[in-house]
Write a structure and sequence with these properties.
The complex is a heterodimer of chains A (169) and B (769). By secondary structure, chain A is of the alpha+beta class. Chain A has two domains: 86 residues, Ubiquitin-like (UB roll), CATH 3.10.20.30; 63 residues, [2Fe-2S]-binding domain (DNA polymerase, domain 1), CATH 1.10.150. In chain A, 27% of the residues lie in helices and 18% in strands. Chain B has three domains: 149 residues, 2-Layer Sandwich (Aldehyde Oxidoreductase, domain 4), CATH 3.30.365.10; 183 residues, Alpha-Beta Complex (Aldehyde Oxidoreductase, domain 3); 249 residues, Aldehyde Oxidoreductase, domain 4 (2-Layer Sandwich), CATH 3.30.365.10. Chain B is built from 20 helices and 28 strands. Chain B starts with 17 loop residues before the first helix and ends with a helix. The chains are: A alpha+beta (169), B alpha+beta (769). Chains A and B meet through helix 2, helix 3, helix 4 and helix 5 of A and helix 1, helix 17 and strand 28 of B.
Chain lengths: 169, 769
């Protein structure tokens, strides 16, 4: 990774991120968080910040297909990696089936956890296309929602399973 | 049942904001970037109680990139607060700080990093004073005085008496007293507070994550001596509030002052720790309840004697204190009621209104207390409640008029769907089933400050070619879905389709006045204004159609965008064609509406708090499984039966029940803000505060009951649902736990540790015995 020093002696690093299929090159500090690069530098504000402590999961993105809290990932760590954010789901006008399912099942209220929740669900379904309800709950246990009691979120994710099971009422 | 058939309402239409929220396009306040925008932060107090001797900002001001540093000297010294009865806050502390987190100074700089550096360079000299953190200690003689204007640290004192409680107790077959202790909880919306202030040529624009643009506009204008017309408050998409975003914070006031000083837009935000410190969450209450019953279990009189920890400022706490007692008589019929309350100041963050405002803890106490009485009388707790359950068209001892009320039906249905009778007898040891009820206002009968403004107003404009219509409403969608259901209501009233509705909401400049999202008010109050506006459009469209079709208007029917002749349904014309013609001939097709509740309640002191045009009722039953080794509580199933009137959108309505119940679940078992002995919060984060996760949520069954006659006070008979289901949960959990283990825990939360200790105590008792 190329590094340059500014006048005060602080090092800056040249990084390239592959976000939603596009490549972006930026100069960051060693302590710059991935979530801040996404939101402030790339204006991808679909990724939310709810706590900056890794508790709430609002900033969940997929890093090489794995769900991560982007507030706990340094931008330099993400250098050269593939990142998928909520803006990269679906194709143009066509929504991802998970996005459709969240609307159809009233699985969102304030919507602030929704991006992260959908990204965690996406990672689950990619690795386990037919999860049980317990597996769904475990997969989103790091994504806090204060509005829905998770009832309709679990239902929405289960409806996207290959062989949809009856969700919990 | 005399129920109308509806075309648009009563259907689970998809949320109007669903698509922008699942794609990440929805912009919340913190997502907005304006040109030339600065970042601002507030410096807060590290001490719970201290005199400010000196503030030196010079070094911070010299830091490159810092554009302004302000203290109390740079802002108006007028005291403010959301409760007009007790304005006790300043934008920045002047003489002393009163809790860890109190506002001392603020900085605006070119970026976040510079702001944090500058905050560290502000030097504040303090003289630390003795502090008090417990409401009972705060009320004792000699306790440190927190506000000079409030001797004895008494913020609010209430003594209400209806009927003759002493006589009722004297005549009662059985009288019992219990004391319960609640805990301090915090709303924890997932979106942190933020605000962007813009000052341009004498006009202040504030983008804020707020539940009430109106109150913000009112208080910001008052604070800075501006005309309300020169203050514009805009609520972008909002990530939850639950009561915590009802009042303006330091972010709006300090942000406005920084924007005025720098002439640049300033974005302010709280981080998660600062949110906990700002608080305005649920008050901890200490609740002594006494009830006298006759030998059949009929309640003769009730005395509620409470103390609440208000924290360092009033916030909305005057109302909270009144609500705590005012709501108790709603669910059961009795004539003799006495309510005493002291809200004490302490050196902790101020408490305010959290979902269910003031009511969930007293309800927990009362429902546990009633179960103890049922046990003492050898009665089924559900039977005891049926005997006492409020009936429709009655008046409470504190003068609340209740129209529709299906509490009895709620109880019966909950009994049936939960298998109560069977489970009461046959659940094995360690498993239990418990019950509690609740009731809540469908909007407050009076606004927070005294004004004769209507409570809600709405305007609908049908766009020129008639293919869409825009609803302009001051109602505030904080996630609960008011934008969606108000558009459904508009379309129903107009004879139009939901799919063609657009909405502009919660912007004090472009939308008509509305008090906002609190007290479960918008479906009934904003909905009433929207219905009126829609009907005004419908009338104009029918009149024009009558001319165009040369048909008597009384022979015309209109529904979902189509108008037809009743006597000959083959004669039709579309709403769009008629609307276009109206625009050509008469100009914009507009409908408007407003709503003010009738005069409600009694004339005694505090009588307005708790008044409402209509009340929801609900019964909850939960089934728990206790691990007797560890005290771990597993709630297996919760059944919620609600009487919430006519349903506008079933999917959103049940979502409200799930969410409200979920909040009750968290408060029942895990949630509590904990402090050290210096008043510092020990768990100011979502992990250690322990917000429940998807793995903690029990199985939920949400059912509804309906009255024969729709609620007369609400448009189409609607009532509240958003807060009601938070209210019984703590009580029904506690009762289920008691049923499972035969020993009572008298404080919240019902933590695993407390359960384990209670079981240990019981075992020791049994061994001794």
């Amino acid at each position: 990774m190329q590094a340059i020093q500014d006048k005060e002696g602080v090092k800056r690093y040249l990084i390239t991120l592959y976000v939603n299929g596009d490549s972006y090159t930026r100069v960051v500090k060693a302590n710059t968080l991935l979530v801040n690069v996404l939101r402030d530098e790339l204006d991808l504000t679909g990724t939310k910040k709810g706590c900056e402590l890794g508790d709430c999961g609002s900033c969940t993105v997929l890093l090489d297909g794995k769900p991560v809290n982007s507030c706990l990932v340094l931008a330099v760590e993400a250098d050269g990696h593939e990142i998928l954010t909520i803006e990269g789901l679906g194709e143009n006008e066509k929504l991802d089936p998970l996005q459709e399912a969240f609307i159809a099942n009233a699985a969102l209220q304030c919507g602030y956890c929704t991006s992260g929740m959908i990204m965690s669900a996406k990672a689950l379904l990619n690795s386990n296309p037919n999860p049980t309800e317990q597996e769904v709950r475990e997969a989103i246990a790091g994504n806090l929602c204060r509005c829905t009691g998770y009832v309709n979120i679990v239902k929405a994710i289960l409806s996207c399973a290959q062989q949809p099971e009856g969700g919990s009422e | 049942m005399k129920r109308e058939q509806f075309a648009v309402i009563g259907k689970s239409k998809p949320r109007i904001d669903g698509r922008v929220k699942v794609t990440g396009q929805a912009k919340y306040t913190g997502d907005i970037k304006l040109s030339n925008m600065l970042v601002g932060k507030i410096l807060t107090s590290p001490h719970a109680h201290a005199r400010i001797l000196n503030i030196d900002t010079s070094e911070a001001e010299r830091l490159p990139g810092v554009k302004a540093v302000i203290t109390h000297k740079d802002v108006p010294s007028l005291k403010y607060g959301i409760s007009p009865a007790r304005w006790d806050e300043n934008i920045f502390c002047i003489d002393k700080v009163r809790f860890v987190g109190d506002k001392v100074a603020a900085v605006a700089a070119i970026d976040e990093e510079t702001v944090y550096k500058a905050l560290k360079l502000i030097k504040v000299e303090y003289e630390v004073l003795p502090a008090v953190f417990d409401p009972i200690e705060a009320l004792q003689e000699g306790a440190p005085l927190i506000h000079e204007e409030f001797p004895g640290n008494v913020n609010t004192e209430i003594h209400q008496s209806f009927g003759d409680v002493e006589k009722a107790f004297a005549e009662a077959y059985y009288v019992r007293t219990d004391t319960f202790v609640g805990q301090r909880t915090y709303q924890c919306p997932i979106e942190p507070h933020s605000a962007i202030s813009v000052w341009e040529g004498g006009k202040l624009t504030v983008y804020s994550s707020t539940q009430s643009p109106h109150y913000f506009q009112y208080y910001i204008a008052r604070q800075f001596g501006l005309k309300m017309g020169d203050v514009r408050v805009i609520k972008p998409h909002m990530g939850g509030g639950f009561g915590g975003k009802l009042e303006p914070t330091g972010l709006e006031f300090a942000g406005a002052a920084l924007a005025m000083k720098t002439g640049r837009p300033v974005k302010m935000f709280y981080d998660r720790h600062e949110m906990f410190a700002h608080n305005r969450g649920r008050h901890k209450q200490i609740m002594k309840v006494t009830t006298g019953v006759d030998k059949n279990g009929k309640i003769l009189g009730v005395h509620a004697d409470f103390i609440m920890d208000g924290g360092a400022y009033t916030s909305l706490g005057v109302a909270t204190a009144y609500y705590a007692g005012a709501m108790l008589p709603l669910t059961y019929e009795y004539e003799n009621y006495k309510f005493d309350m002291v809200r004490a100041y302490t050196n902790l963050p101020a408490c305010g209104a959290q979902r269910g405002h003031g009511h969930p803890q007293p309800r927990y106490a009362y429902e546990c207390h009633l179960d103890m009485i049922a046990k003492d009388l050898g009665m089924d707790p559900l039977e005891l409640r049926l005997i006492n359950a409020r009936k429709p068209n009655t008046v409470t001892p504190n003068a609340f008029r209740v129209n529709s009320c299906e509490l009895e039906a709620c109880l019966k249905k909950a009994r049936e769907i939960s298998g109560w009778d069977e489970k009461r007898k046959n659940l094995p040891s360690g498993k239990g089933i418990g019950l509690a009820v609740g009731s809540f206002v469908s909007g407050a009968g009076y606004p927070i400050y005294r004004t004769n403004l209507p409570h809600a107003a709405a305007m609908i404009k049908v766009n020129e070619d008639g293919t869409s219509a825009t609803l302009y409403t001051g109602a505030v969608d904080i996630g609960q879905g008011s934008d969606t259901i108000l558009c459904q209501m508009a379309a129903e009233a107009m004879g139009y389709t939901y799919e063609q509705m657009k909405i502009v909401a919660a912007d004090t400049e472009t939308t008509p006045h509305d008090f906002g999202a609190y007290a479960s008010r918008q479906t009934l109050m904003s909905g009433a204004a929207v219905k009126q506006a829609g009907e005004e459009i419908r009338k104009q469209v029918i009149e024009m159609a009558s001319m165009m079709l040369q048909t008597d208007y009384r022979d015309l029917e209109i529904c979902e965008g189509l108008i037809w002749r009743r006597s000959d349904p083959s004669v039709t014309i579309t709403f769009a064609e008629v609307a276009r013609e109206l625009f050509v001939r008469k100009g914009p097709l507009v409908g408007k509406g407003s709503y003010a509740p009738p005069r409600l309640g009694g004339t005694f002191k505090g009588a307005p708090v708790g008044t409402s045009p209509a009340y929801s009722f609900c019964a909850q039953i939960s089934q728990v499984d206790i691990d007797e080794e560890t005290g771990e509580i597993k709630v297996e199933h919760v059944w919620d039966v609600h009487d919430c009137g006519t349903v506008i959108n079933p999917a959103l309505l049940h979502g409200q029940v799930h969410g409200a119940l979920f909040m009750g679940v968290g408060e029942a078992v895990w949630e509590e803000v904990v402090f050290d002995d210096k008043g510092k919060i020990l768990n100011a984060n979502l992990g250690e505060y322990r917000l429940p996760t998807a793995l903690d949520m029990p199985k939920v069954t949400s059912e509804l009951v309906f009255s024969e006659e729709p609620e007369p006070a609400g448009p189409w008979g609607v009532k509240e649902v958003g807060e009601g289901s938070t209210i019984p949960t703590m009580g029904c959990y506690s009762n289920a736990i008691y049923d499972a283990m035969g020993v009572r825990v008298y404080s919240l939360p019902l933590s695993y540790e407390k359960i384990w200790r209670a079981l240990k105590g019981k075992r020791e008792q049994e061994q001794k015995g």
